[in-house]
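Thread: magnesium ion complex, take 2
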Amino acid sequence: MTLRLSNLHAGYGRIEVCREIAMTLADGEFLAVLGPNGAGKSTLLGAIAGSVNGRGQIELNGVRLDHMNARARARHGLALVPEGRRNLFSPLTVHENLQLGLRLLAAAERPRMLEELMAMFPILGSRRAQLSGLLSGGEQQMLALAVALARRPSVLLLDEPSQGLAPLVLQNLAAQIGSLRKLGVSVLLAEQNHRFAAQLCDRYVVLSSGELSGGGGGEELQDADRVASALMSA
Ligand SMILES: Nc1ncnc2c1ncn2[C@@H]1O[C@H](COP(=O)(O)OP(=O)(O)OP(=O)(O)O)[C@@H](O)[C@H]1O
Ligand SMILES: [Mg+2]
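Output below.
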């Protein structure tokens, strides 16, 4: 077992957005949280990462994280790639953004990790001196992924990586995210695009008005029409 949520509630001030969330993400599992606009996907991922207020239990590899701040949760192995690649600093170069991502690692480990990331995302090597704000949307998403992976997370929380990307770019991104399986990392992927999620994930859950309402896996996830109707009836 990697990540376990029980009776998790999350929201903003007095507004409760997510209610009674219970789910488990196994070691190396890729799980999609599907839901329409405003369903609470980003709120849920933020509550897990510690950037949105929540109450309830969040356990990672047997350690309770819910009383920790976002930085401590990151040290314990969680990494969030927020919606709109907001973990990037656009006036900084690709290399500088990666250096920020590497800060949680011991100084001696950083050069090797940087090399690993360059091997995983060759496009970033050829753009290392470029301002990240000037990268294409697809390149920015690669960089956002690389910055999050720089901390060697055990769980990656990916918030709508497909947003605003052209179909061809999406294919490339799906291949890159799929290749993370060999790292053994577990992935919680929040998406509206169920076809994109189906290419990557082992199973899915549906988030509807802040509550989980069913899901499925395997062949069922590959049946795009069935998933779409589950989403529409959510
Ligand atoms: N900072 C905030 N303050 C108050 N309410 C918020 C805030 N952020 C989001 N909300 C509200 O919480 C609800 C869920 O929003 P959230 O962004 O989690 O949905 P989502 O599923 O990620 O949607 P999308 O697919 O559009 O990204 C919405 O009603 C939204 O208006
Ligand atoms: Mg969102």
